[in-house]
């Protein structure tokens, strides 16, 4: 069973071996009361990667390490700032554990993993302790020996580095420690994984920029669209391990990222050739749909549980909570199965390959070189016109199921316009930001209306099941009435919100 920890550390150039008197200055930094010697550790790690180093190129690493206090398999994934997530499994054979292989799949894209580097470190270890003797941080000086395993004549490298790793407490402690180190001439070093440094020193490692990317003019429409796409492609890849491990909100974020990608490829077809991007859009729609089974149930479960919990006890008639729990267990299991099956499918792996190719060699059209004030504004106005058609049609209809469906379609158009505005915001500034904010309000209100409509459908099915089992249907009917009223309130709010969004999308306002 894998165990996950958050690792927050900073690297420094190695200090002179005969000048470490500054160690005493660390006592008194924040809660640090003393510095304790912890001896020497001999660490031996074999790093695994694909032949073309897909893990290292995305700042991740996978190793089998012996020695020290944490022998085992370690998969390290980057997090913002000075942190990384380290996922550990116990030592096993030299075959990569299936769980770690799957968690790395969005980076390897199914390519085989094999040993690429052996790194041995002699570690001089010290602990920074508080007044109770608890470890606050770990300071280590590593003498590193790296041997490439990529080929028979692999290169070799040796260096010395220092690391300060937070064990517990406020990350601001690292700032205080760094002040002492800098005062004593110990400079901050680039925080790259050891295996990345070893690869850089022993083998041609860095990718050459593709010809297609090299042709993108900085500040052009294509530059802004590709920058947005790069962030989304990276986010989709990075969310994959969290979704597999059922981390809270991960499915929601991955689904939203897939939708943003799909919307961007639709909105900016004047920049990227749709013959290439349309198949990707279809796969993204499929992925969002598969993730949606689990995500929609999460939203519905929270809504129903909250609704029942807010009712006075005398209005909860029959085994309402028991039926809700049984329904939740069955639906949650089905949603999780659909998510994991999707991430294990060939279609998903093919999608990851297509997205990588799209980022590396984008199919640029002529307008990619155009000015964003012209190309991006035109794309936004096209999406706006689609939204106008759908929203005006919805608001002209009488209340009922047909209007509910039309509002839902208008909501989808609002999402696409919002995502297109996100991509354009670095180029267009305040007008795009204002438009995105107003359209988000439309999406929020229409989304709340849709959630109530969907909840009504589920409540009806639960009521039918309860009736068939001879249980009272009063509580389900009461909740149904509340949700229908909530949907009506959102419908009445929508025209005002839509009017504000229309004002923000005027052609003159976008060109300001």
Structural notes for this entry:
The protein has 512 residues and is α+β, with helices and mostly antiparallel strands. It has three domains: 3-202, Beta Barrel (Hypothetical Protein Pfu-838710-001); 219-370, CHAD domain (Alpha solenoid); 371-512. Helices cover 54% and strands 17% of the residues. The chain contains 15 helices and eight strands. Strands 1-5-4-3-2-6-7-8 form an eight-stranded antiparallel barrel. The longest helix is centred in the C-terminal third of the chain and has 39 residues, at 430-468. The model has no long low-confidence stretch (mean pLDDT 92).
Keyword list:
512 residues, alpha+beta, Hypothetical Protein Pfu-838710-001, CHAD domain, 15 helices
How many beta strands in the DSSP annotation? 8
| Principal-axis shape | globular
CATH architecture of the largest domain: Beta Barrel
CATH fold descriptor of the largest domain: Hypothetical Protein Pfu-838710-001
Rg is 28 Å
- Major beta sheet summary: 8 strands, antiparallel, barrel
Name the CATH homologous superfamily of the largest domain: Hypothetical Protein Pfu-838710-001
* Low-confidence blocks of residues: none
CATH class identity of the largest domain: Mainly Beta
Strand order of the largest sheet: 1-5-4-3-2-6-7-8
Tell me the distance between the termini. Answer: 56 Å
Secondary structural class: alpha+beta
Number of domains: 3
Percent strand equals 15-25%
Approximate helicity band: 40-55%
Mean pLDDT: 92
């Amino acid at each position: 069973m894998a165990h996950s920890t958050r690792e927050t550390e900073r690297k420094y150039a190695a200090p002179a071996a005969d000048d470490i008197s500054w160690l005493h200055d660390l006592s008194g930094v924040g809660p640090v009361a003393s510095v304790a010697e912890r001896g020497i550790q001999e660490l031996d790690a074999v790093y695994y990667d694909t032949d073309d180093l897909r893990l290292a190129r995305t700042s991740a690493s996978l190793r089998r390490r012996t020695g020290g206090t944490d022998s085992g398999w370690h998969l390290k994934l980057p997090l913002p700032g000075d942190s990384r997530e380290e996922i550990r499994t116990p030592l096993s054979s030299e075959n990569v554990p299936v769980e770690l292989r799957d968690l790395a799949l969005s980076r390897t894209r199914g390519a085989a993993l094999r040993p690429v580097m052996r790194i041995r470190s002699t570690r001089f270890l010290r602990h920074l302790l508080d007044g109770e003797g608890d470890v606050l941080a770990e300071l280590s000086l590593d003498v590193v020996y790296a041997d490439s395993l990529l080929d028979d004549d692999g290169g070799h490298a040796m260096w010395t580095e220092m690391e300060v790793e937070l064990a517990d407490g406020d990350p601001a402690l690292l700032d205080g420690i760094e002040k002492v180190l800098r005062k004593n001439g110990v400079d901050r070093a680039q925080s790259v994984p050891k295996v990345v440094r070893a690869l850089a020193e022993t083998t041609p490692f860095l990718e050459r920029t593709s010809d297609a990317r090299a042709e993108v003019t900085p500040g052009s429409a294509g530059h802004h669209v590709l920058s947005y796409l790069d962030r989304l492609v990276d986010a989709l890849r990075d969310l994959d391990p969290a979704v597999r491990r059922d981390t809270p909100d991960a499915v929601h974020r991955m689904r939203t990222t897939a939708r943003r990608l799909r919307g961007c490829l639709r909105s900016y077809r004047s920049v990227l050739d749709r013959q290439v991007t349309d198949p990707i859009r279809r796969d993204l729609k499929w992925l969002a749909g598969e993730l949606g089974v689990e995500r929609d149930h999460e939203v519905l479960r929270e809504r129903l549980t909250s609704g029942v919990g807010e009712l006075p006890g005398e209005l909860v008639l029959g085994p309402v909570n028991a039926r809700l729990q049984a329904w939740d267990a069955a639906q949650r299991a089905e949603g999780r199965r659909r998510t994991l099956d999707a991430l294990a499918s060939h279609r998903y792996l093919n999608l990851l390959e297509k997205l990588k190719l799209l980022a590396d060699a984008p199919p640029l059209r002529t307008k990619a070189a155009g000015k964003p004030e012209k190309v991006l504004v035109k794309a936004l106005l096209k999406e706006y016109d689609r939204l106008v058609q759908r929203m005006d049609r919805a608001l002209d209809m009488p209340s009922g199921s047909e209007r509910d469906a039309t509002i839902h379609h208008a909501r989808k158009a609002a999402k696409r316009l919002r995502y297109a505005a996100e991509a354009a915001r670095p180029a267009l500034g305040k007008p795009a930001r204002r438009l995105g904010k107003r359209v988000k309000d439309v999406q929020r209100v229409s989304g709340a209306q849709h959630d109530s409509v969907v909840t009504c459908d589920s409540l009806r099915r639960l009521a039918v099941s309860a009736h068939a089992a001879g249980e009272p249907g009063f509580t389900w009917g009461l909740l149904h009435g509340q949700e229908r009223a909530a949907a009506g309130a959102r419908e009445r709010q929508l025209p005002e919100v839509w009017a504000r969004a229309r004002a923000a999308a005027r052609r003159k306002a976008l060109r300001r």
